[in-house]
Specification:
The chain has 217 residues and is an all-alpha fold. The chain has a domain at 65-193. Helices cover 70% and strands 3% of the residues. The protein is built from eight helices and two strands; from the N terminus they run H-H-H-H-E-E-H-H-H-H. The protein has a two-stranded antiparallel sheet with strand order 1-2. Strand 1 (126-128) and strand 2 (131-133) form a beta hairpin. It is elongated, with a radius of gyration of 25 Å. Its main location: membrane.
Length: 217
């Protein structure tokens, strides 16, 4: 006697369950990335020099020549690099705060990159208004949007002008600040660089978002 036929069972999850899992994955990725990034920033700020030492008026003098000024800038940057990058970030922040539309545009663009690409689960397609977009199409749209926002609006000119102002302040301070009274360990001099601590923060964020983003490459 033949055994009764078994009915096929479906293991697919309901859409609500898939959506909740995607939201949980997105929130977890955001929290992990924010934790790594804040930890790297706190570690970098802990290595900054005292601000009183930065603005010590008795240490300012006019450089003898252009090459002397260049040498001063290099030495001062190696010593005050965290302070200089903090000043540059403050100039950029003040510029964006004085232009709310540009700030809102940049935040919207950043949110689009994070939610639609960086933290979106690799196996979940992007669906907008009933149309499904592949990962390549999503990346192309985001890149095109970034180019339009940065180069075809006032946002790009604002960022460039604020960066130039910040660099001007840094170069002026570095040229007139006499570095003879500054002492720096040899290991610090070898490990210094323009984006030394930013690289650590970026690598930490990449470690948190790597699996989702690299799977689309």
């Amino acid at each position: 006697m033949s055994s009764p036929a078994t009915l096929p069972t479906s293991t697919s999850q309901p859409p609500s369950s898939v959506t909740s899992q995607s939201q949980a994955t997105l929130i977890s990725s955001l929290r992990s990335s924010a934790t790594h990034l804040s930890g790297s920033v706190r570690q970098a700020l802990a290595n900054r020099r005292p601000w009183k030492e930065l603005i010590d008026r008795s240490a300012f003098s006019r450089p003898d020549s252009l090459s002397h000024a260049t040498t001063r800038i290099r030495k001062n940057f190696n010593y005050f690099r965290v302070n200089y990058l903090t000043l540059l970030a403050i100039v950029l922040a003040l510029s964006l705060l004085s232009h709310p539309f540009s700030l809102l545009t940049l935040l919207s663009l950043l949110a689009a990159w994070l939610c639609l690409y960086a933290f979106r689960p690799a196996g979940q397609p992007l669906v907008i208004l009933g149309r499904t977009f592949s990962d390549r199409e999503t990346l192309g749209i985001l890149i095109l949007s970034t180019v339009i926002v940065v180069f075809l609006t006032s946002v790009g000119s604002l960022l460039i002008s604020a960066t130039l102002v910040g660099l001007g302040i840094v170069c002026a301070h570095g040229a007139f600040r006499d570095p003879e009274d500054l002492f720096m360990d040899e290991q610090e001099a070898l490990g210094s660089g323009l984006f030394s601590f930013i690289g650590g923060a970026a690598s930490s964020a990449a470690a948190a978002t790597g699996p989702a983003a690299m799977s689309r490459v």
